[in-house]
Amino acid sequence: MVASMGRRERDRVHAVRELLEANIDTPPTLAELSRRVGVNVTTLSQQFRQAFGYTIFGYLRVRRLEHAQQLLRETVLPVSQVAYRVGFSNPGAFATAYRRHFGHVPRDEPRPIAADGGCSPIH
């Protein structure tokens, strides 16, 4: 995918991916991304999809969910806090997106034991 692109286009889509990764919880708008890399929205969207196989915000959604899974497995944060931390404003929408992507709800993810020896909070 990326190999068939010119250097300028590759650099552009990689810059956008880096911006998304750095701002996963509050990403720039598509218009802002296109301004930052100096190309119109349509061209940027087409090049990003060609390079990575996802729309820009499809990529962002997958990365948010992967980051959420990591937080659930490695922290004792409540599911609602994980949802907010990765950029979802509604824990219910987060749970639905999580289930669609991973095949189970966030509360079914293996969690670490809380430091006090009790069960980690789920909500």
Radius of gyration: 17 Å
* Mean pLDDT metric: 91
Helix content: 55-70%
Count of discrete domains: 2
Please give the CATH architecture of the largest domain: Orthogonal Bundle
- What would CATH call the class of the largest domain? Mainly Alpha
SSE arrangement, N to C: HHHHHH
Gap between N and C termini, in Å? Answer: 41 Å
Number of strands: 0
Structural class: mainly alpha
Protein name: AraC family transcriptional regulator
Domain HTH araC/xylS-type: 14-112
InterPro entries: Homeodomain-like_sf, HTH_AraC, PchR_regulatory_protein
Pfam families: HTH_18
Please give a quick description of this structure:
The protein has helices at residues 7-22, 30-37, 41-52, 56-74, 79-85, 91-102. It is mainly alpha-helical and 123 residues long.
List keywords for this structure.
123 residues, mainly alpha, Arc Repressor Mutant, subunit A
Note down, in words, how this protein is organized.
This protein has helices at 7-22, 30-37, 41-52, 56-74, 79-85, 91-102. Helix 1 crosses helix 3. It has 2 domains: 2-53, Orthogonal Bundle (Arc Repressor Mutant, subunit A); 60-108, Homeodomain-like (Arc Repressor Mutant, subunit A), CATH 1.10.10.60. It is mainly alpha-helical and 123 residues long. It is 60% helix and 0% strand. It has 6 helices and no strands.
SSE map:
Elements: H1 7-22, H2 30-37, H3 41-52, H4 56-74, H5 79-85, H6 91-102
Helix pairs in contact: 1-3
